[in-house]
Amino acid sequence: MIAPPTLLHANDIAHWDDTADVLVVGYGIAGACAALEARRNGADVLVIERASGGGGASALSAGIFYLGGGTDVQRKVGYEDTAEDMFRFLMASTRAPDAHIVRRFCDDCVGHFEWLEAQGVPFERSYYADKAVIAPTSACLASTGNEKLWPYAEVAQPVPRGHKVAKVGDGGGALAMNALIARCEEEGVRVCVDSRVTALVHDEARRIVGLRVRESDGERHLRARRAVVLAAGGFGMNGELMRHYAPELPETAEALGTPHNDGAALMLGLSAGAATQAMGGTIATASFYPPAQLIKGILVNKRGERFVAEDAYHGRTAEFIAEQPDATAWLIVDAEIFAYPELGHPLVDGWETVVEMESGLGLPEGSLQRTLAEYNAAAASGEDTLYRKHADWLKPLDVGPYAAFDVSYSSNVYRFLTLGGLVTNVDAEVLDDHGHAIPGFFAAGACVSSIPQDGKGYASGLSLGPGSYFGRVAGRNAAACTRND
Ligand SMILES: Cc1cc2nc3c(=O)[nH]c(=O)nc-3n(C[C@H](O)[C@H](O)[C@H](O)COP(=O)(O)OP(=O)(O)OC[C@H]3O[C@@H](n4cnc5c(N)ncnc54)[C@H](O)[C@@H]3O)c2cc1C
Questions:
Q1: pLDDT digits over 44-65, tens only?
Q2: What is the pLDDT, as a whole number, of residue 95?
Q3: Which fold has domain 1-66+89-121+165-276+420-485?
Q4: Most exposed of 109, 215, 225, 364 (fewest Cβ within 10 Å)?
């Protein structure tokens, strides 16, 4: 595995090339939010960005923020939500949640939504009711997770919490980043681009007090009077780190993001003794819907067996597919619900009978016949006792001819984000292996393992939502650190 960079000692830095109260590494959503809050809390802030401008993966994103607890959008379109319901849902759906982090995020969500709008991030008061990965309109609110799925719907009142920036279809992330970067510029945040952070500097008290950066004309050392905030994104683009930390993700999956999401923040954190968690956690997706009618089909593996409720969030389904033998599965439909998946999953074939389909897919004799007979009986009774798929999506698959789409990893491009990273606490402080905060060191965004930790518990918006919120927390707390003159 790649070794972390050397942690430099302040005594070995002969000359500091620049100084700021707070140094922020990375100018995506977490970094921009950290910089703004640090600045507004009286700090001189310098953002270091490796690319030639701000944005990062955040600017490539669809701009869906997972927010709730009764935001103005939720109320205006007729949904009642509470911080308590949101908390219960996230606690139930997150793999190993930190209750303090989840609680703080849920309690502050309404205010955080208002803050985002006040920075100029636009959201409509509108609702998108259909099933989609990204709503094809500029509508704001949509169900983007597993809230309606069993068992979560029994734990908390299911309400939609995906808030999409007001942009038709994809691309809202760029609007959000334009607004946040404009605020940073107006308010005097200093930004240094084309500058790559290559090492952290600490002092005898283990406090992080500076950075080494590499630029086109050589190396420079930057001093932080108060603190350093790491916000340099995830590590999906680093094949070596992926093979080390997430070997269970099929190799055909492709990373989403910019080439700079290469794990630099993770390695910098490790150099300072930071703890990590959920390192194998990813959200991968190649959704077989839309169109939504396909959710009425069933997914089967090489044994001809179902393995997930087909109405699950597409990232949850993807993780279950990855766990099946050879990460192979098929979507089975009948003539009544036949449609081509928008993403273009390959159609294997059509067959007049289930027996022919079973043999055409090479499934064990009798397996698909049995699975479909059991499923059809359950669907006719209105209750899927096996996986508790919601009654809205149940219909016997008994109108031939039948068809199968290949949803295997090897036949489709599954795209993923990493969810593992540095361990932080509710104050966005970076923790070491003993759970102690490393002084002067904060982190937020995709370089930390925060609320979402795996694809089974992910909901669209759970990166930008907590990433922007805890970016602000990091910036505020970094500015409040004692000056280290
Ligand atoms: C296509 C796509 C769609 C998505 N849609 C959504 C969505 O709708 N909702 C959602 O919640 N999430 C979405 N995500 C995920 C989400 O965008 C990211 O998880 C989130 O933006 C990460 O924010 P960040 O600030 O941590 O990192 P980034 O936005 O990646 O910012 C990190 C910055 O750090 C810089 N950097 C890296 N290394 C260094 C270094 N050594 N020195 C200096 N700078 C460095 C990078 O250049 C980058 O600008 C999507 C992602 C993609 C790619």
A1: 999 999 999 999 999 999 999 9
A2: 93
A3: FAD/NAD(P)-binding domain (3.50.50)
A4: 364
The answer to whether the CB of 263 falls within 8 A of the CB of 242 is no
Contact 269, 25 (CB under 8 A): no
Pocket mutation for ligand 1, best pick of 417, 418, 442 (most atoms within 8 Å of C-beta): 417
Q: What pLDDT sits at residue 229?
A: 98
What pLDDT score was predicted for residue 243? 96
Is the separation of the CB atoms in 229 and 22 below 8 Å?
yes
315 lines ligand 1 (CB under 6 A): no
Residue 236 Cα to ligand 1 middle (Å):
11
CATH class of 287-411: alpha beta
Compute the mean pLDDT over every residue in the chain, rounded to the nearest whole number. Answer: 97
Residue ranges in the chain whose pLDDT is less than 50:
none
CA angle, 434 then 438 then 442, to 5°: 120
pLDDT at 484: 75
Asked whether the CA dihedral 112, 113, 116, 117 is positive or negative, the reply is negative
* Ligand 1 atom at minimal distance to the Cα of residue 56: 49
To test ligand 1's pocket by mutation, which of 47, 52, 58 has the most ligand atoms within 8 angstroms of CB? 58
